[in-house]
Write a structure and sequence with these properties.
The protein is of the alpha+beta class. The protein has 2 domains: about 70 residues, no CATH class; about 60 residues, OB fold (Dihydrolipoamide Acetyltransferase, E2P) (Beta Barrel).
Length: about 150
């Protein structure tokens, strides 16, 4: 049985999951790319199935490790808030992982502080930068925005 089409199907399935937004840290992306590599390798060279599976695992692990290292180096860049960014009030202060609760548009939301070096306490203001599901992405509001100045 030819295994190259199976690798290709696995790769396409994993990459489709990445396209719909299931992959948050790059693991499925690496699995899909490794599947494409294995589809090509298995089509050109007859390797035993066990060797192909081990090679796939090695490519995924190595690629994921490189992606995490690159992400750690380049993940420090913050997105500045837009001029019309919305404000939210902190209900429960943020923990060391950057998780807390805010009141935004009259409702309580789980929030992720994108700058964990600053931990706003209850009653302070944060700027809402975006949303993923039921969690808001926030940054502590600059002083000019909290003082009521334009």
């Amino acid at each position: 049985m030819a295994i190259a089409p199976l690798w290709l199907l696995l790769a396409l399935a994993l990459l489709a999951l990445v396209l719909v937004g299931i992959d948050s840290d790059g693991l499925l992306l690496m699995g899909g790319l490794a599947g494409l590599v294995l589809a090509l390798v298995s089509a050109l060279t007859p390797l035993p199935t066990v060797v192909q599976i081990l090679l796939w695992g090695a490519i995924v692990a190595g690629g994921y490790g490189l992606l995490r290292r690159w992400s750690a180096r380049h993940g420090e860049r913050m997105i500045p808030p837009a001029a019309g960014a919305e404000q939210a009030e902190v209900i429960a202060g943020f923990d060391a992982d950057g998780l807390g609760r805010v009141r935004w548009q009259g409702q309580s939301w789980a929030a992720l502080n994108l700058d964990p070096s600053l931990r706003p306490g209850a009653g302070s203001r944060v700027t809402v930068l975006g949303r993923e599901g039921t969690r808001l992405w926030v940054l502590p509001a600059p002083p000019a925005l909290t003082d009521g100045e334009p």
